Amino acid sequence: MRTAQEFIEGLRDDREVWYRGERVADVTTHPELGVAARHGSLDFELAEDPALRELAVTDGHSTFYALPRTAADLRRRSALIEASTAHGATLVVLLKEIGTDALFALHRVTAGTDAFARVQAFHARCRDGDLALAVAQTDVKGDRSQGPSGQADPDAYVRIVDRRDDGIVVRGAKVHTSCSPNVDELIVIPTRALREGEEEWAVAFAVPVATPGVRLLCSDYLHGTDDPWTRPVSSRHKMIETLTVFDDVFVPWERVFLAGDVERAGRLALAFVEFHRFTAVSYKLPLVDTLVGLALALAEANGIARASHVRDKLTWLIGYAETVRGLTELAADRCGVDPATGIAFPDPLTTNVAKWTFARDYQEAVKHVIDVAGGLLVTGPSGADWEHPELRPLLEKYLAGAVPAAERMALLNLASDLLARSYAGYQSVLAVHAEGSLEAEKLQIWRSYDAERARTLARRLAGLGG
Predict the structure, then answer these.
(1) CA-CA distance, 176 to 203, in Å (whole number)?
(2) Separation CA 33–CA 273 (nearest Å)
(3) Is the model's pTM score more than 0.85?
């Protein structure tokens, strides 16, 4: 297994990364992307932490790469994802989590085909090399009323443009690709079900990030600040998302997992989501726990903890956090086991109910914490003010509450970073769209629920038979 420093050193290559109109020479030393790279290294620190090593390491390799076989394996994976995200101060690290979600799905979908051995070999390479992975799934899609074959520009979905004896050539772009500037390998999978006639878009493969023709255009949404006092999380933890362009990229056959099989393309898209939404609710657990803890601490700091309406909000937050946690654990306990591979997968119904519950109620949770916190979330002083010898006594005098000003402002600054500043906006969008939208989760709930069982019960109780 690699150390965090070995991971960082492995990112220094010829990858084509763009940020704010400039080509980035070294993602590890860049003032913004370097923060993201160091955040990503947290997935490698877990194995070096004596308190977490037993959880983080399985048979000498990262536990992330261990194929889950039982509900207990899925629970352990969830606990590792939660621990990693807590280590990242509520921001998921995602350098091994998402890639292994895709690898598990690829195992299940390619079983019985020639590609299965290639998937196994790639999985072993990533596990043995302790590699960092990103997944590019979401195509840019163009006109969303049309599928891939109906687009004015066929490159709106990544597609095969040439087949050669030694491999394929692909063209197109994926969007919302998390962490891609700071990983070793990029796994590309379909975003949707496809139909006959759309074989060229039915493609899945993996390439090193530094492959010629792979171009990463980074979003600057979380562009940083030099004031860690007011932004205790976002100044030290960052995730970079990219528009990932494949400009006639060559992929050798040993790295191609799907090429023209439209039926398996849809199955792969769905199988990945089954694992990745379970990852999603697992990494949300430190965030919902933090919302509860912040509301409790701020109520005490503001001297309002005994107010009945505040107690009501705190109770709601506790119920919200524990419901998401309970559903996440139940999704593992209700797991299925794929008969072809023996891989355990989280129960799709419960996983989607968990993700939908988190996303549906997230803004209500944020509202409750903001209500308890007060307006200083957006009117408080800067770090420079706090450090100024003439201003500090005034701030300590007038910003004290039921606790000293230093304690109160530390809590308020954390709440402001999580709930009111740019990082808060990022988390709000993640809640609605990451790992699938609310509508996608509701659709999967509808598909997964055994409606006939409930209907039969109701009819029997009504005296109508089965």
Answers:
(1) 18
(2) 27
(3) yes
